[in-house]
């Protein structure tokens, strides 16, 4: 990396995230006086006001410009979604882990201006007011979480539209759609008119924002004394005059066009998992080839521009959360996940020159954001995989590796066209989507072991003594494992019903009150339908519930089947009593359950079959249920850091896990349950039918020794290829020694830059809570291939 | 365990063998102490097109060795000492059968990697490696793995209340290993340390 990038990179690392009150203040100011009635128009006008008035920042030496806040690492808040209390702000300011500086002015504005207007008006307030007592009971007990109570529906990935069209072209499409509206036969015509006009205003907002950067760059150029920088500023001005109003003409403009689009989306609303350029190497390659052939660009210059963009991603920490959501995922990282490789639209190998260029950038930049992954198809060369593994070996958790052929299969099963599937990929952690045309909304984590716990207690949550579930029978009276499993299914049905009912209400609240017209204008077919992203506008609309703790749940069921019903070495009565006491005084029993239970992750059918049963039970409950937007529900398996939170809400489990300990993460075996090495782990994991999910997450932790030399890379490459040949969806590696992690816990100041793979993302080890740190250490450290 | 039981366990890893072009290695102890079982297992693997390797000290009846070699794709063949008297002193048997078997396998065209544990003061001298180099050259063998003596087993001996008789020996240094390796490389061998 050159001197410029080195300095920009250091600056983004050194700057502590701070809370910018600018957006909240401007929004409140606008909403106080605005008299617009139709919701989409009001939202669009507010967005235009923000983009016209927010601070324009162009930093020294920058080539790619634009910030979401008023400066790098300045994080705006979204009071229309979730209005922080003064207390929340103070906590953020003093929080040791993942703190955000909050200055006195921000506190004052929040208290005097923002709270008085938004109190009881935020989506969070609306949502909690609409939820039933059953929903609240389950939510508070840690049976499931709710994504939309603090952030807007997201998980959106851009297709190729901005590389083909400028926003002026998009506006022309909007005008054409307006002209086609049928006010004679379509009762929704005027609602559609409002939505389409809102999209046009939003396009103006983002073009105005770009234009303001051009003006600022020109002004800076006039006073700049260094002729080299002066020329750069003039170039920046020219780029910002052109994009995103017009389609980009070259590599630089393509990057800047994306970045303005990105900022538009994440300023309009605080969408889950930020926003993402998706198949960036595919989109950029034509510009790169043209520029390089024409002599306008060298590989080094292209790399510098990409690295300047990488700094921009890293300048945007996730907006701070409140309450339990902060516990679910306390992190700065905002999950913009760049897809590399995979397939082209015509099904051929998608690895190109820009793929390797981006991998070099990832390697050099070593930043939390953007996150990165390999979309590995059987058609991709091994050189691509091995280049990725070289970066993995450095031990900061990136890139993660996905089975591109499986992603295609998953999307086909959901009814997407083959070309759409090939242009898809993953976003967030591991979530499969058809880029540029699908709203695939994650709605909350679902605690499978908790459902087992409530089943074993006949509908009662033993942690509180409250009856929150269904009476599915006294477990002591069950005469067979099958009877227990039937009760578990019934309990599962009860809680999935509660979750889906709540989701459907929340979906309507977003459709009615929180449209996202700018985002909508970029996603197929919102313009044609005249409908918002949050109201079924996209071509595909999918709603997800994420299963958490399948391995812990499996091992618990396996323990009961094995010890209680088959070998009869312990009675259900004694087991339940021991669980209630958290094994106190029963360490011998706990160790027997922990060590002598057939467990998931060892390529043994006894436990792996139970995993399939749990998988199918959850699938049967969720998959194909209808959502309110013309689409349906799907299942995926990722836990981010929620398995730690859910663990804290779940009592002792029959597999010998103590109360409060972390649940298994993703689809990984329970921590320490896999004893036969990584080949057995991937064999077990592959017994899950990944094709029917929208993503699964498998974590493996290796010591650096295992990946030493070309030989080590080869072995891991074989492991990955083998897992994918068995239709696994995703695998990622933490390459770090447990000794290093212990040392970092003891002396965090010496290990500030230690990045580890947490779930579907990487984070600074020292920013993690002690519980999460311990969990990462506890994940089986694979010493060798079995 | 029966041969079908072992094969079931082996086949669990078939997908990895396919991807890595790997296969099964039978090692020991000395697997040829159970030659019948080993032969049957090797044949069973070949019937399923699984590549096989045999890790052996070579001390076996030549007839057995010939039969087994039908189903071995790669021999990992231990050769500790060229001096037969010394061989007897340290291992309890002379090395004549071992050398004959090696010659027979080489003549039959088996794929062989010769593996030499390097034990300071026992077999790391010039004479031993000189003789070894000459003998392997005469057989047309090219691949040698040098295995530095280690003490990973000493704890096990202790726990079994046994003496291994080598408590006094230190593992060879990296330089010692490199000296031996480069000498063999000069003689035209492909040498790996470790392996």
What do these coordinates show?
The complex is a heterodimer of chains A (786) and B (195). Chain A has 786 residues and is an alpha/beta fold. Chain A folds into 3 domains: 1-76 and 160-269, no CATH class; 134-156 and 318-335 and 428-676 and 683-694, Alpha-Beta Barrel (Anaerobic Ribonucleotide-triphosphate Reductase Large Chain); 279-315 and 338-423 and 698-786, no CATH class. In chain A, the strands form 6 sheets. In chain A, strands 3-4-5-14-13-17 form a 6-stranded mixed beta sheet. In chain A, strands 8-11-12 form a 3-stranded parallel beta sheet. In chain A, strand 3 (337-341), helix 16 and strand 4 form a beta-alpha-beta unit. In chain A, helix 2 (22-33) runs parallel beside helix 5 (104-118). The longest helix of chain A is centred in the N-terminal third of the chain and has 35 residues, at 189-223. Chain B is of the alpha/beta class and 195 residues long. In chain B, 46% of the residues lie in helices and 16% in strands. Chain B is built from 9 helices and 6 strands, in the order ααβαβαβααβαβααβ. Chain B has helices at residues 3-11, 14-20, 35-47, 62-69, 84-91, 96-107, 126-139, 154-159, 174-186, and strands at residues 23-26, 51-56, 74-78, 112-118, 143-148, 190-193. Chain B has a 6-stranded parallel beta sheet with strand order 1-2-3-4-5-6. In chain B, strand 2 (51-56), helix 4 (62-69) and strand 3 (74-78) form a beta-alpha-beta unit. Chain B starts with a helix and ends with a strand. Chain A binds chain B through residues 603, 679-680, 683, 714-715, 718-719, 721-722, 725-726, and chain B through 12-13, 15-16, 18-20, 22.
């Amino acid at each position: 990396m050159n001197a410029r990038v080195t300095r920009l990179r250091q600056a983004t690392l050194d700057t502590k995230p701070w809370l910018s009150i600018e957006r909240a203040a401007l929004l409140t100011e606008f909403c106080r006086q605005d008299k617009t009635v139709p919701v989409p128009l009001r939202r669009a006008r507010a967005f235009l006001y923000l983009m016209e008035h927010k601070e324009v920042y162009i930093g020294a030496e920058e080539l790619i410009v634009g910030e979401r806040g008023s400066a790098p690492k300045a994080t705006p808040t979204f009071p229309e979604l979730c209005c922080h209390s003064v207390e929340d702000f103070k906590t953020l300011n003093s929080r040791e882990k993942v703190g955000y500086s909050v200055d006195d002015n921000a506190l004052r504005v929040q208290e005097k201006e923002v709270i008085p207007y938004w109190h009881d008006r935020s989506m969070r307030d609306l949502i909690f007011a609409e939820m039933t007592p059953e929903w609240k009971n389950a939510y508070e007990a840690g049976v499931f979480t709710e994504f939309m109570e603090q952030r807007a529906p997201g998980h959106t990935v851009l297709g190729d539209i901005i590389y083909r069209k400028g926003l002026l072209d998009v506006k022309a499409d909007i005008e054409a759609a307006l002209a086609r509206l049928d006010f004679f036969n379509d009762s929704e015509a005027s609602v559609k008119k409002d939505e389409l006009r809102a999209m046009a205003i939003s396009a103006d907002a983002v073009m105005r924002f770009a234009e303001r950067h051009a003006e600022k760059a020109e002004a800076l150029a006039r006073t700049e004394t260094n002729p080299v920088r002066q020329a750069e500023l003039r170039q920046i001005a020219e780029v910002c005059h052109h994009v995103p109003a017009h389609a980009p003409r070259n590599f630089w403009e393509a990057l800047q066009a994306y970045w303005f689009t990105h900022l538009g989306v994440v300023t309009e609303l605080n969408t889950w998992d930020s926003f993402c350029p998706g198949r960036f190497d595919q989109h950029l390659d034509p510009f790169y080839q043209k520029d390089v052939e024409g002599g306008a660009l060298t590989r080094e210059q292209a790399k510098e521009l990409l690295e300047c963009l990488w700094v921009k991603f890293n300048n945007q920490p996730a907006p701070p959360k409140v309450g339990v959501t902060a516990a679910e995922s306390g992190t700065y990282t905002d999950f913009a996940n760049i897809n590399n490789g995979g397939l082209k639209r015509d099904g051929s190998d998608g690895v190109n020159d820009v793929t390797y260029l981006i991998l070099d950038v990832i390697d050099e930049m070593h930043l939390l954001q953007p996150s990165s992954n390999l979309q590995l198809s059987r058609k991709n060369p091994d050189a691509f995989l091995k280049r990725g593994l070289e970066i993995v070996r450095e031990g900061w958790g990136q890139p993660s590796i996905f089975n591109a052929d499986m992603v295609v299969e998953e999307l086909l099963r959901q009814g997407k066209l083959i070309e759409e599937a090939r242009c898809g990929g993953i976003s967030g952690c591991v979530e499969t989507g058809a880029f540029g045309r699908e709203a695939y909304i994650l709605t909350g984590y679902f605690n499978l072991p908790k459902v087992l716990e409530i089943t074993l207690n006949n509908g009662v949550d033993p942690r509180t003594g409250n009856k929150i579930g269904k009476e599915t029978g006294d477990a002591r009276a069950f005469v067979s494992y099958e009877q227990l499993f039937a009760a578990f299914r019934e309990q599962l049905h009860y809680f999935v019903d509660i979750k889906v009912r709540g989701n459907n209400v929340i979906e309507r609240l977003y459709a009615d009150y929180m449209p996202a017209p700018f985002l909508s204008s970029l996603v197929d077919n919102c313009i044609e339908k005249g409908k918002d992203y949050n109201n079924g506008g996209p071509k595909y609309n999918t709603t997800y519930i994420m299963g958490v703790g399948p391995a812990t749940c499996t091992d618990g069921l396996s323990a009961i089947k094995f010890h209680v019903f088959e070998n009869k070495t312990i009675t259900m009565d004694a087991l339940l009593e021991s669980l209630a006491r958290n094994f106190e005084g029963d360490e011998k029993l706990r160790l027997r359950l922990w060590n002598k239970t057939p467990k998931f992750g060892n390529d043994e059918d006894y436990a792996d079959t139970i995993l399939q049963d749990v998988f199918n039970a959850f699938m049967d409950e969720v998959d194909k249920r209808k959502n309110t937007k013309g689409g349906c529900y799907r299942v995926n398996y990722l836990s981010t850091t929620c398995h730690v939170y859910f663990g804290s809400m779940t009592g002792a489990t029959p597999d010998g896990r103590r109360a409060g300990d972390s649940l298994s993460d993703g689809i990984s075996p329970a921590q320490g349950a896999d004893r036969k090495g990584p080949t057995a782990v991937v064999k077990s994991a592959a017994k899950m039918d990944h094709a029917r999910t929208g993503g699964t997450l498998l974590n493996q932790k290796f010591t650096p020794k295992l990946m030493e030399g070309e030989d080590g890379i080869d072995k891991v490459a074989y492991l990955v290829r083998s897992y994918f040949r068995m239709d696994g969806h995703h695998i990622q590696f933490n390459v770090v020694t447990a000794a290093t992690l212990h040392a970092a816990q003891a002396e965090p100041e010496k290990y500030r830059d230690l990045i580890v793979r947490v779930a579907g993302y990487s984070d600074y080890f020292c920013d993690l809570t002690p519980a999460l740190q311990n969990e990462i250490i506890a994940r089986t450290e694979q010493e060798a291939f079995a | 365990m029966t041969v079908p039981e072992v094969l079931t366990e082996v086949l669990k890893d078939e997908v990895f063998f396919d991807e890595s072009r790997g296969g099964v290695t039978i090692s020991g102890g000395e697997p040829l102490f159970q030659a019948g079982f080993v032969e049957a297992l090797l044949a069973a693997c070949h019937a399923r097109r699984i590549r096989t390797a045999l890790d052996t000290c070579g001390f076996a009846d030549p007839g057995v060795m010939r039969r087994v070699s039908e189903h071995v794709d790669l021999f990992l063949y231990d050769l500790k000492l060229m001096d037969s008297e010394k061989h007897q002193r340290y291992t309890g048997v002379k090395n004549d059968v071992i050398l004959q078997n090696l010659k027979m396998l080489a003549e039959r065209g088996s794929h062989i990697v010769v593996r030499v544990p390097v034990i300071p003061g026992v077999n790391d001298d010039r004479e031993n490696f000189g003789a070894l180099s000459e003998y392997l050259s005469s057989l047309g063998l090219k691949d040698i793995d040098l295995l530095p003596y280690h003490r990973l087993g000493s704890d096990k001996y202790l726990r079994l209340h046994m003496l291994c008789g080598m408590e006094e020996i230190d593992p060879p240094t990296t330089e010692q290993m490199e000296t031996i390796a480069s000498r063999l490389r000069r003689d035209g061998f492909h040498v790996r340390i470790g392996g």
